[in-house]
Amino acid sequence: DNHVGYSVPIGGVIAYRDRISPSAVGFDIGCGVICARLAISANEVRDSIDPILDELYPNLYFGMGRKNKEPIEHPIFNDTAWDVAVARGLKNLAQEQLGTIGSNNHFVDLLIDESGRVWGMGHFGSRGLGHKIATHFIEAGGGKDGMFVEPVLLDTNTQLGQEYIACMRLAQKYAFAGREWVASRVAKLLSTEI
To answer: Could you list the pLDDT tens digit for every one of the 194 residues in the chain?
Structure first.
């Protein structure tokens, strides 16, 4: 979508040989969208949108730094990437935030398609886990905080570079696990009459 980002524009593409740039990759790792077809009719949504939103909002967790009120057991927490020191130090935060949505341009929405089917859609990424991992590796790579700074480059053949890649893969899986939880929560909440 090409707007100003940290050291490179959001949506920009850079190719390096044997290097990776944590500042170019950014802070919201795995930010994406999930859609789930819901077992509710378009007419029910149109006729009852206020009660539906009253049901959804207190059962989903929006906002920066929010924690999920329900502990979630998920296979992501058995991933070997948690053995990387920075990830290990963030595991409790990650467990508390899995399934939370965030703020700014992150959302959950209900959509009705041209065939009258209802979809739940969520948009968010790796939450505090990704942001803190990115911050750690930018600092470890000698980078500075700011929008208009030189990109940080890590050698992918070093321990630091390999740890960064492992943590990025972990954050990507974590973001997807969070979106799956939110999609299933929305589907469950809207599977009964409101």
So the answer is: 567 777 788 778 889 999 999 998 888 899 999 999 999 999 999 999 999 999 999 999 999 999 999 889 999 999 999 999 999 999 999 999 999 998 888 999 999 999 999 999 999 999 999 999 999 999 999 998 788 888 899 999 999 999 999 999 999 999 999 999 999 999 999 875 43
Pairing of strands 19-20, 154-155: antiparallel
- Distance of alpha carbon 128 from alpha carbon 27, whole angstroms: 9
d(CA 47, CA 89): 47
Q: How many other β-carbons are positioned within 10 Å of the β-carbon of residue 75?
A: 8
Q: Tokens representing 162?
A: 């390999």
Q: 166, exposed or middle or buried, with CB in 10 Å at 0-12, 13-18, 19+?
A: middle
Contact 36, 180 (CB under 8 A): no
